[in-house]
Amino acid sequence: MFLPNRHPDYRTALDPRDAEALGLDAAIEVERHLIYRDNHAPTPLHTLGALAGELGVSTVHVKDEGFRLGLGSFKALGGAYAVACLVLEEAGRQLGRRVDVAELRTPAVRALAAGMTFACATDGNHGRSVAQGAELVGAASVIFVHAGVTDGRVAAIARYGARMIRVEGTYDDSVAEAARVSAENGWTVVSDTSWPGYERIPGLVMQGYTAMVREFLRQLPEPPTHVFVQSGVGGVAAAVAGHLALALGERRPAFVVVDPARAACLFETARAGHPVRVEHGEPTVMAMLECYEPSLVAWNVLSRVADAFMTVDEEDAVTVMNRLARPRGGDPAIVAGESGGAGLAGVVRAATDPAIRAALRLDGTSRVVVVNTEGATDPERYAELVGLRPGDVRPEPAIDAGAAA
């Protein structure tokens, strides 16, 4: 399904708070934070020339987040960044002065962080980032996972010292339970989705993702004309679209939000014109995107700067995983997890559907960027769907050794 953005706010200016959170100054500060993270390095931007030729576009570039900070996902940029910001703010309150990120690992700040507990709900990747961020600063973490999260992903999070709590039901049920239990215990919830009255911290999480956009704009020979990004609750799509709009202005690319058809909360929200919760049905293979209610902060951005919304099916996602693992025509091999290639699946669907192609003005001059949002964060599941181990596809580890064990 495909839907152009017809919201009354489309093409209007971002809310000043969103513009501040996703703008250039904020992105520069995020990159400064990254200097103090272990394993930090810009992630690669791959060029898929053969695929571009097949799709009838000029270029296809894939920003590969499968190696981000040893966690195997773009989520490494968000949760841990928010945890660090919150610890520094609390230190500033207690010490009566501004505390810089350079002081994050000092004994004084770590002693303060030791009394803090950070909690969140997760499909896997966000929880790993929050847990890693808490471990980095010396705080505690409690991570809530729903019934559909695999044991492999739970173990990967627990390796960062997190206390794990299983919740019956869906991701949205785990979000509600994390908020309830945290309120009872005085824990700080670091969620990547937002609801009325809880917006600032999800905004910090989104802010962390802007570093990825800064990187690929520097890595590209010229700005893209089209960007396709997948969505769960919408945080990464909003961060990418919002920063592109602020950084490039009228030269910004056409931006397309890609949902799994079985969990299309952003698509249905766009169709309704306001946030809606979609019914839980058969699980989607795109497990990291299996969310049934959008983030209000994300929708506030996407209603203004997304140009279109679309859905992809289960087989689309798995086909892209396999195509990236077995490239043609000299294209590089890429390890994309079940959700990682959903944006590229959207490109393939759009480029091969005459009506969508025309609506988006995709042609032989189009320069397309997508984000591989995750590598093989569950290596066993990856092998089931692709028939190859991640290391057989690309020799570099898809995630850190501890998480893969």
Describe this structure in words.
The strands form 2 sheets. Strands 1-10-9-8-11-3-2 form a 7-stranded mixed beta sheet, with helices on both faces. Helix content is 45%, strand content 14%. The protein has 2 domains: 2-73 and 202-404, Rossmann fold, CATH 3.40.50; 79-191, Rossmann fold, CATH 3.40.50. By secondary structure, the protein is an alpha/beta fold. It is globular and about 60 Å long. The protein contains 18 helices and 11 strands. Helix 10 (235-248) links the parallel strand 8 (226-230) and strand 9 (254-260). The longest helix has 20 residues, at 200-219.
List keywords for this structure.
7-stranded mixed beta sheet, disordered C terminus, 2 domains, alpha/beta, Rossmann fold, 405 residues, 11 strands, 4-stranded parallel beta sheet
In CATH, the topology of the largest domain is named Rossmann fold
Helix content: 40-55%
CATH architecture of the largest domain: 3-Layer(aba) Sandwich
Poorly predicted sequence stretches spanning 5 or more consecutive residues:
397-405
Task: Name the beta content range.
Answer: 5-15%
Q: Tally of extended strands? A: 11
Which sequence of strands runs across the widest sheet?
Answer: 1-10-9-8-11-3-2
Structural class: alpha/beta
**Euclidean distance between termini CA atoms:** 39 Å
| Average pLDDT level | 94
Shape: globular
Order of helices and strands: EHHEHEHHEHEHEHEHEHEHHEHHHEHHH
Question: What number of domains?
Answer: 2
CATH class of the largest domain: Alpha Beta
DSSP helical segment count: 18
